[in-house]
Structure formats: C-alpha cells, structure tokens
Amino acid sequence: MISVNEKKKECCGCGACSQICHMGCITMCQDSEGFLYPVTDVEKCIRCNRCNQVCPIENAQKVCKESKELRQPLTYGAWHKDDTVRDNSSSGGAFTLFAEHIIAQGGVVYGCALDEDMKAFHIGVDDICELDKLRGSKYVQSKIEDTYVKVKSDILAGKKVLFVGTPCQAAGLYYFLGKRKHDNLYIVDFICHGVPSPKVFEEYIGHLERKYDSKIVSFKFRNKDYGWSQTGLQLGTKVKFANGKFLRKYPAFKDSFMNGFLDDIYLRPSCYECQFKSLPKEYADFTIADFWGVDKVSKRLNDKKGTSLILVHSKQGENMWKLINDKCYFEKVSFESAIRRNKSLIQSAKINPKRNNFYYDFEERGYSYVERKYMSVFQWASHKILKMRKQLIQR
Predict the structure, then answer these.
(1) Phi and psi for 289 in degrees, rounded to 5?
(2) pTM score > 0.70 for this model?
(3) CA–CA gap between residue 271 and residue 293 (Å, rounded)
(4) Within the chain, where are the H helices?
(5) Rounded to an integer, what distance in angstroms lies between the CA atom of residue 233 and that of residue 1?
(6) CA atoms within 13 A on the CB side of 391
(7) Residues near 376 by Cβ (< 8 Å), separated by ≥ 6?
(8) Each residue of 335-386: pLDDT tens digit?
C-alpha cells in the first residue's frame, strides 16, 4: 500500500505559522518533493505556541469534532455579463465579479499570479488593469510569503480587501487573524482538487523551454479557445514563447503536467486527506468553482462560454452578493444537485499508487523520463479505466 510521510500530512504549507512568529524563527523551506514546510530555529523559539494556535489544520480538526450540523450554503450558477471578462476567465468570471467590486471602493485584491519565471506567488493588486494577472486557474501551489501580514495591515488601515486562495490558504488567513470577522475583509476559496508540486512544474517549464529553444512568457492552464463545456474535456493549456510561437495541448490530459495533476501523482501529501472538505466553512464568505454538470441542473445556465458555481457561506457574503449580482446572469440552484459533479468540495483526491516511484524516478532521471513513463495519454487512460473497473466492482 502506498503511503506518504504521516507528519507531512499535517501541514498544508500556508505559512501562517511563519508569519505569526514575532521572533522570526520559522522559515518555510522546500523539501525534496518541492513543497514548503516550516523549519524552526529552536534557539530563537520562546515557546509562545502562537504557531500552533494559527495552524489551519489543527483548527480544522477541532472544528470537525465540535461541529454537529451541516449548514448548506446559498448556491448559484452564474456568469459575468461582460463577455471579454468571461473569455479571459477559467469559467464564468465569478472572481472578477468580486474583485471589481472591491477595487471600485479603493480596495486591494489578493490572489495567485505567475511571475516572469512562471513561479506562482500570491500578490495584491489595486488597479482593475492588473486583475488579469490573477484571473484563471493555476494548478500549482503558490507561495504565500507575507501575504497574511499585508492583508492585516490593509484591513487595519480601513481598506476593503478580497483574498482568494485554496481552502487551506483561506483558512490560514482566517486563523492568522484570530478567527475574527472583519467588515472590510472578504475571503473566497474554491473547490480544490489538490495542489501539485511547484518543483515538478518548474522542471516542466524548463523542459518546454529547452525543447522549443525559447523562454516561456505566458502560460494558461485553462484556455478556452474551443469554448467551455460541462465536462471540461475541451479545455487545455496554451503556452506563449518569447519567439512569438504558441503551443496548445487539447484536451488537458494531452499536456504531460496536467496529465500528472489529473492523475493525482504529485499532489501535496496533505491533499490526500484534506481537512477542508467539510461544511459549514466558518473561514470563508464564498466558494467558487466551475459548474461541472450544469446541464443536469439548468440548461439555461450553459451557453458554452463558461459557468461559475458560487456558494455563499456568510451573512457578510450574502450582503455583498446582493450588491454585485446585477453584474451577472445567475440562477439560484439546489446545493445537492450542484455538487453532484463537484465532489472535490467534500472528497479528497485518492493517492496514486505510483507516487513514490514517480518521485524516485523524477529525482534520479529527470522530467523527460517521468513524462514518458508516468504522464503519457496512455498512462492516464489506463489509470482511468482501472478506476472505472473498481467502481463497477464496488457497485
């Protein structure tokens, strides 16, 4: 039976502990798989325990034990009325809907962006023209660095703030702020399948740049040149090189990195037993996602340009929704029907049995080798067929 380091399952890499430490004794360091973990300088540590108090995983475990009710969120299918926004978004443009509202009030929006070296970082923007940096899915774990500290500074200065991140990053911010609900802070997470290794993505980028003899200047994980459908199969990657050439891979599983992500072979250890697959979400105001399976819920919601699923968790979220929903087409839908094809809201990814072998070969032989051995279309199809057979046997 495949396994991952048990201790590493207890860390999501949000960095709340390192940011709360006023002694500066906690550093986020990359391990051999490419994920960040806190390393403590014990000589500086004064045993204040603040790092444990803000840990989202420790807090999530407590909440799960204490929570006795399942409060279903208000549930909507929606899309932004501006087609240009929707074209540049992964699905229906829900993120932009929230972000525009915050920036119009002189606020700051924090989210994930790729830098010039295609590395994922959380950044803050306060100009509508910079929102494109934050649009679109990034299937790699971002570095939070001191983002929580900056968010706290902004909200104490009276600015409106929108923070968007994975459920564990969103929870990390909430607990970093002492579980306080701030009137000028809105926290948005998304339905997360799991976060792939930044190290694997970095090697993949290098592999492409060597293969095509040009630096990558733009990378879209979810391009919509061929539209959007409720299955997501037509979505694919689009890479632009400095020499002006483009590389497109459709469907997504034809791209080796996306193939490995979809096959759950290099997700963070904590993702296989995610502590944030439960409701209610006390730390978030909204959850957004692609509305997979939308036709089964409402055919009117699918015009093949992209549809977002929006879950509203808080009264503060409800109030904001009332202020912005005139900017989108939307329908209120049944929560149960909406998550039928969005199981990642409540279910963790299953660990790939070849994960350990993948990382051994990755370290010893490099990306080109593992691409051929583990991330081909044939490998992806074989694994999917095996999963389907298991499901049929279980029935």
Answers:
(1) -170, 170
(2) yes
(3) 24
(4) 16-20, 50-53, 56-66, 83-87, 94-104, 147-156, 167-176, 198-212, 256-262, 315-324, 335-338, 355-365, 367-374, 377-394
(5) 31
(6) 6
(7) 256, 259
(8) 999 999 999 999 999 999 999 999 999 999 999 999 999 998 877 777 666 6
